[in-house]
Design a protein that fits this description.
The chain is mainly α and about 180 residues long. The protein is about 70% helix and about 0% strand. The longest helix is centred in the middle third of the chain and has 45 residues.
Length: about 180
């Protein structure tokens, strides 16, 4: 059989039929293999080497089946890494180094609302004070004083407990 050259040179479709796969499936497998492991090795006559195909097909299948435990180990290692990251995040949160996004959004929402309300009320607060005044310096000082009053009120915006603790700890560290 091999001596007459009829069976050791086959088309890709014939090789796929021997392997029990569609040509398209074997083509996809072959495309992703490195050059030294390609399933289809073309001969000079344009046909493909049956003996080399069978050897490489067996090698491919053995490698694919032996990767299962290795893949499990990789998955297990990734799982452990994710668990460690989760634990680290929990520790950081307990130490006050990590805060909940919703708490931050709520805090900044309250601050933005306070700023908006204070700024909206400034004209109605200042207008009666400056009505009838001619001196630019006096009007300027009244506006300046009211803006400072609003800004000082914003600076006294209460912080959540966890933020207050961090600020106090930071101040103590700086004093030491």
């Amino acid at each position: 059989m091999a001596g007459d050259g009829t069976t050791d040179g086959l088309t890709k479709k014939e090789l796929a039929n021997i392997a029990g796969y569609t040509y398209r499936r074997l083509y996809d497998i072959d495309r992703n293999l490195p050059a030294e492991k390609k399933l289809f090795v073309e001969r000079e006559d344009g046909k493909y080497d049956l003996a080399l195909f069978v050897q490489r097909w067996v090698d491919y299948n053995l490698a694919a089946n032996s990767d299962a435990p290795e893949d499990f180990d990789v998955v297990k290692a990734r799982h452990e890494e994710v668990k460690m990251q989760k634990t680290q995040l929990e520790v950081d949160q307990m130490r006050g180094q990590l805060v909940d996004v919703q708490d931050v959004k709520k805090l900044w929402g309250n601050i933005a609302n306070t700023i908006m309300q204070a700024m909206i009320h400034l004209p109605s607060t200042i207008a009666p004070m400056v009505q009838g005044l001619q001196s630019v310096e006096i009007i300027n000082s009244i506006i300046d004083a009211e803006i400072r009053r609003v800004l000082n009120g914003l600076a006294e915006t209460p912080l959540p407990e966890y933020a207050g603790e961090d600020a106090e700890a930071g101040a103590e560290d700086e004093e030491a």
